[in-house]
Design a protein that fits this description.
Chains B, E: GO terms for molecular function: ABC-type transporter activity; ATP binding; ATP hydrolysis activity; molybdate ion transmembrane transporter activity. Chains B, E: Keywords: ATP-binding, Cell inner membrane, Cell membrane, Hydrolase, Membrane, Molybdenum, Nucleotide-binding, Translocase, Transport. Chains B, E: It comes from Pseudooctadecabacter jejudonensis. Chains B, E: Its EC number is 3.6.3.25. Chains B, E: It is an enzyme of class 3 (hydrolase). The complex is a heteropentamer, with one copy of chain A (224 residues), two copies of chain B (347 residues) and two copies of chain C (231 residues). Helices cover 38% and strands 23% of the residues of chain A. With 224 residues, chain A is an alpha/beta fold. In chain A, the strands form two sheets. In chain A, strands 2-1-3-10-4 form a five-stranded mixed sheet, sandwiched between helices. With 347 residues, chain B is an alpha+beta fold. Chain B contains nine helices and 20 strands. In chain B, the strands form four sheets. Chain B has a six-stranded mixed sheet, with helices on both faces. Chain B has a five-stranded antiparallel sheet with strand order 13-12-11-14-20. In chain B, a hairpin with a 2-residue loop joins strand 1 and strand 2. In chain B, helix 4 packs parallel to helix 5. Chain B is globular. Chain B starts with a strand and ends with a strand. Chain C has a single domain, classed as MetI-like fold, CATH 1.10.3720.10. Chain C contains eleven helices and no strands. Classes of the chains: A alpha/beta (224), B alpha+beta (347), C mainly alpha (231). The interface between B and E is large, with 54 and 54 residues. The complex binds adenosine-5'-triphosphate (2 copies), molybdate ion (MOO) and magnesium ion (2 copies).
């Protein structure tokens, strides 16, 4: 009896590790399915055989809660938004960012559809920098694609999650955005079946949370 | 018996033809663009006529789909299926008399070949066999030999004769070549601009000076029917015809068998007295039945003897100097060697 | 070689082959029918069919996937009909991946077949009909075999597209390991996580090798057909 | 009508047309050259070219986009060469979107042209050469015009693909409104937000309408060519 | 002058032929598969021979690409470019003597038409014009008329004659039809299985009993050259030939102009005494120069008078009964109307 977890693609490595924890602790087996949050939400609403859904986005989480028979939902992790660079080193004053970029570009995820893009736009707006940077912003399909532009030297800076840096040693944090400049970054677990409850329990357990930490995620805001 | 009555208008051509096709071969003859192919396509159901009445015995097939008509059609281009072997092509429409057809058309050695590897004459024989093996009630042959050159044409001709002699269905044979027509057809329908202008038995039409303008001066010439009397050691055959006994180059027919000989008008020489010491073996006493002047330097002379007719074409000058006149008795001289083998057929 | 790919990747490879194969095989008859209708038909709505066939090419793959989800999902009208009539479920099954691949490859297949059909001499079809072959038999025994180069080209394009299809598939049937996670989906998800590139490129090489084999076989078949056609 | 789409959507529409048009136009000569080499050439590496041409079909679009980024990005070797030689920059420009569309449509275009080339009677090319035409002139005056149906089909397929291309485009040049945000990218973005479906489908209808116009024009051209060819 | 020396091996056929082509028409004659097309393709550069030496005057063109050879090639199928008008087709290779070529071939009314709308004869005339307008140094004509039926062939023939008379380049003319060959060609090269078996002036080869097996009994017949003496009112033309004066059906040549007449052997009747009261206008005293028996019932008789030669084919029986022998004086009888217009040409 497999437990099926539908998860946002950005959780791939972390969920992989939680899977091992789950299988070791319960003896059951787990099948993770990764796709974009939008695809995951829509498919589950159309009856995809998921026991649990892990979304990287509050909006799709509430959309799914309204469009499917969700038994329970809770936030299981958070993340920090950071400015990332490959060569330019630490940026002491975020207000110098437009100058630092010069005639280069700033890589982001899509600001209307991808959560990381939305958070980044909000943070820059809060800092009063968005109007200056909007023409320089290139919007990738997801965070990973945005950071690839930075990695390749196509973009001077990029905005992504702290968790993304774990697997990308060549990239460094140039600036950490204050959590108050953008909506809280939350990862949501929605339980659809009793079997799913067991997985969420493991996810919230000490071992589960430490696996998430290994991959750079922070504990959910309501947890210490 | 096939009865055809068609009416169809193309943007700048109108077809309006009615004629009957009894068992045996009926030739459709006429200049390019006179509507021969259109008629054949209409009979096959490939051309949707404005008005088509095609009766085959009691059946009216004029409104059937082509595949329901039981018609064998041999196209000018063989139209063999390139992805099948010769044998597969042959069997496409059926396997009627398979062994006989293959033997009749000499196809044994070709069966496993592909159409692309065949010469034009071979391809046309296969097309013929394919149509025959479907067991059709009517055969339509649209210039089946015209894409072939002389020697290849000569290869296929005997097969067509054998076919005519061995089956009893109506066949329409389109051709521009009077040699073919005279050798194969029993009847001829001459078309001009979509209409039938002359029709009748080949012997009558070809010996009729009135039909000459439609047939062409060079192609004019009587067709004699006769009977083989016997074969001589020196390769000549004696044939008894209405007009008298003729020696022709040896043919295959057995003694007593029927034979047809086309005598082109321009190969006949006339003499007032019986000539002597000539290399021409055939000298026949005949009576002049008619004289018709043409546009050129020639005069067409209709000759008669024993109820049969012959046509001769002589210069106007000779006609004058010899004082040729209707009712006069003259001698017609025919060379045996001038009677081409393709103008003799054993029926 | 077994070390080179993990078991999950072997599974994805096998699944991709299955999906692309069945997508190609099952869509060929429909592709031929559509190409035939477009090449020969004079019916009204010919243009409409033509446009319909090209839709999957014109729309972003995600839209096609979304429409498939609406129509063939578990609760979609067509999905319910297929389940009731044939017991065939597409939603979140490999069959759905094959459906998505087939739909996405359809315009390519139809165009290729149609170019071949347009080049067939209608005289051969006429000849077959005078030999007593009904329209259906002419189609089966003359038209179809002569359209072979186009069918082959169409099958290759369909198969290649089936190997590469991503957007419509993941949107329609998601990315379920062993069920709908084809090579293309594996590659794509690997490219979405940091550090996934090396394995992704290795998988891409596998796809390419398979497509190369398919291409070489199809070229050999086509040239054999040409040689046979000539003599 | 102006109310029906917002200014951002009008911009995306215009950009899509520009991208698909230039992608098709610029890839046609290369498509013809590749098809000609595949159809006539006997050179070694013909199979390799064949495989290369088909790659964008076989690989997931994201991989193609990724490879384009590696090659034609600002720091990629080809990107640097093009910038140095022609002053042509692809990275994050509409030109890059056109390049991605051209590459993705290339296999479709080449197949279509090749089927037409294979159907040309070599006797006509021989005749032209005896009339003193060099190989190049034969190509230009005989082969090319006779391959017209395939060129037309190839152009339509390329254009349609250009309208629909998403994965390679966004990976290579990202989604920059007014610069690289084509209709397909707009549609995709809209589908990623809850409630974006109605506008997304409206944009999809616009794509379809454009493709329909292109198809109808191409069919008309093709049938005119057929009528002229017959008499 | 074109000098050809070729050697090439196909899997089961070897070509090994060397011959010269002077200005004027040289016919290539031989059975199907004897290598005629292969030679022509090799001269044009379309067939890459193992060993090809093709000299045109001082130039060796044997290794040039086809488009560098300045060769006009008329294919059996016209191979017109379907996407161009007739005029565009004509101008494809050049615009040499444009107005003359169009007038010569009677193409004025066709210029704006498309090839698909042309009849076979029209298409072949356009192909001829297209080759001519490129201003070639050599013309190659591969059965240019064989796809046409009789009347259409007759349409094109005068254009070929006019072409021959008005240009001074070497031309190779492939044909199975001896009427065409005799009418058009000055020289003939007979091929058999890839090798040249007989070659020479048409007059000599066709009147040579030894060449008969290669040419075929039916096609054998001498070619006489003569000079027009004058035209009579009744449509006949008097021609002075080596063998004597002949009356032939009216031809266009002006008085004093040269003329060629083919006299098929089977149309000649021999008589020991001068016959009288015959409709045949031409009776010529000749001497028997040779007798050759064939396989059939015929004997080929070579006749001579005034240095010219004639062939007659008579039955063995006639030869015996007339006691024909070499050296004997006899009369040859020729019908004026049997001399077909296509066997007379004004050169
Ligand atoms: N589909 C068509 N549309 C318009 N006109 C046509 C069509 N088919 C035939 N015709 C016309 O009908 C006439 C007769 O054509 P048809 O092919 O029957 O002649 P034919 O006697 O077979 O000539 P040929 O000896 O050249 O084969 C021609 O003038 C031709 O232009
Ligand atoms: N490309 C080829 N490959 C193999 N054999 C060939 C090729 N071309 C010609 N041949 C062979 O060469 C021989 C001569 O062919 P060719 O076409 O020259 O004959 P031809 O005299 O023109 O005959 P026809 O009168 O039928 O046109 C044939 O036996 C043919 O099989
Ligand atoms: O961009 Mo595509 O064409 O996903 O398969
Ligand atoms: Mg006809
Ligand atoms: Mg030949």
């Amino acid at each position: 009896d497999d437990v099926t977890v539908f998860a946002a693609a950005s959780l791939r490595d972390a969920v992989g590790e939680v899977t091992q924890v789950y299988e070791a602790e319960t003896g059951g087996s787990l099948r993770p399915v990764f796709a974009a949050s939008s695809a995951v939400a829509r498919q589950v609403a159309q009856g995809a055989p998921a026991d649990v859904v892990l979304l990287a986005d509050a909006e799709w989480a509430s959309w799914l809660a309204a469009n499917a028979e969700v038994r329970a939902g809770r936030v299981f992790a958070g993340n920090a938004l950071v400015l990332i660079t490959s060569q330019n080193g630490v940026l002491d004053d975020i207000n110098t960012l437009p100058d630092a970029i010069g005639d280069g570009v700033l890589a982001m995820a899509e600001v209307t559809s991808v959560p990381a893009g939305r958070y980044g736009q909000a943070a820059l707006q809060a800092l009063g920098l968005w109007d200056a940077l909007a023409p320089r912003a290139v919007q990738a399909a997801n965070v990973r694609a945005a950071l690839r532009f930075v990695e390749r030297g196509e973009a001077a800076y990029g905005i992504g999650y702290a968790s993304d840096l774990v697997a990308l040693p060549k990239l460094t944090v140039a600036y950490a955005f204050d959590a108050g400049t953008h909506p809280a970054i939350t990862y949501h677990a929605l339980t659809l079946t009793p079997a799913g409850t067991a997985f969420v329990d493991v996810l919230m357990s000490e071992n589960g949370q430490s696996a998430l930490r290994t991959w750079g995620f922070t504990p959910p805001p309501d947890m210490p | 018996m096939l009865q055809i009555d068609l009416r169809h208008s193309f943007p700048d051509f109108t077809l309006e033809a009615a004629f009957d096709v009894p068992a045996g071969i009926t030739a459709l003859f006429g200049p390019s663009g006179s509507g021969k192919t259109s008629i054949v396509r209409a009979v096959a159901g490939l051309l949707q006529c404005d008005d088509a009445d095609v009766r085959l015995g009691a059946r009216n097939i004029g409104r059937l789909r082509p595949h329901q008509r039981k018609i064998g059609y041999v196209f000018q281009d063989a139209r063999l299926f390139p992805h099948m072997t010769v044998l597969q092509n042959l069997r496409y429409g059926g396997r009627m008399d398979e062994d006989q057809v293959i033997a009749l058309l000499g196809l044994d050695d070709l069966l496993m070949r592909r159409p692309a590897g065949l010469s034009g004459g071979e391809a046309q024989r296969v097309a013929l066999g394919r149509a025959l093996m479907a067991g059709p009630d009517v055969m339509l042959l649209d210039e089946p030999l015209s894409a072939l050159d002389g020697p290849r044409k000569a290869d296929v001709m005997p097969y067509l004769e054998a076919l005519r002699d061995q089956s009893a269905i109506p066949m329409i044979y389109v051709s521009h070549d009077m040699t073919e027509v005279a050798r194969l057809a029993g009847r001829i329908v001459v078309l001009d601009r979509g209409r039938v202008v002359v029709q009748g038995a080949v012997e009558d039409v070809l010996a009729d000076p009135v039909a000459v303008p439609y047939i062409g001066v060079q192609d004019a010439g009587a067709v004699l029917t006769g009977r083989v009397v016997g074969h001589a050691d020196d390769g000549l055959t004696k044939v008894e015809t209405g007009i008298g006994a003729l020696w022709v180059p040896g043919v295959a027919g057995r003694a007593g068998g029927p034979l047809r000989i086309r005598i082109p008008a321009q190969d006949v020489i006339l003499s007032r007295s019986k000539p002597d010491g000539l290399s021409a073996l055939n000298v026949l006493p005949v009576t002049i039945a008619g004289l018709q002047e043409g546009r050129g330097p020639g005069v067409m002379v209709a000759l008669e003897a024993g109820g049969a007719r012959l046509l001769a074409r002589v210069t106007r000058r000779s006609a004058l100097s010899m004082g040729l006149a209707v009712g006069q008795n003259v001698h017609a001289i025919l060379k045996a060697t001038a009677i081409a083998p393709q103008d003799v057929s054993d029926r | 070689m077994t070390d080179w790919l993990g078991p999950a990747e072997w599974t994805a490879l096998w699944l991709s082959l299955k999906v692309a194969f069945w997508a190609t095989l099952c869509s060929l008859p429909f592709g031929f029918a559509a190409a035939y209708a477009l090449s020969r038909g004079q019916f009204w709505g010919r243009q409409a069919l033509n446009i319909l066939v090209h839709l999957p090419l014109v729309m972003p793959p995600v839209v096609t996937g979304y429409l498939l989800l609406l129509g063939f999902g578990r609760t979609g009208p067509l999905g319910e009909a297929f389940e009731a009539l044939f017991g065939l479920v597409f939603a979140f099954r490999w069959t759905g991946a094959a459906l998505a691949a087939a739909i996405m490859g359809f315009p390519l297949m139809v165009r290729a077949i149609r170019l071949s059909l347009d080049a067939i001499d209608p005289g051969l079809e006429e000849a077959a009909s005078t030999l007593g072959a009904s329209r259906l038999r002419v189609l089966r025994t003359v038209t179809l075999p002569l359209a072979w180069p186009g069918l082959l080209a169409g099958a290759v394009l369909g198969f290649a597209k089936g190997m590469g299809e991503f957007g419509a598939t993941i949107t329609f049937v998601s990315n379920i390991p062993g069920q709908t996670q084809t090579l293309a989906l594996s590659i794509d998800t690997l490219l979405e996580v940091p550090g996934g590139e090396p394995l992704a490129l290795r998988l891409a090489l596998v796809s390419i090798a398979i497509a190369a084999v398919a291409l070489i076989i199809s070229e050999a078949l086509a040239s054999r057909a040409r040689v046979r056609g000539r003599g």
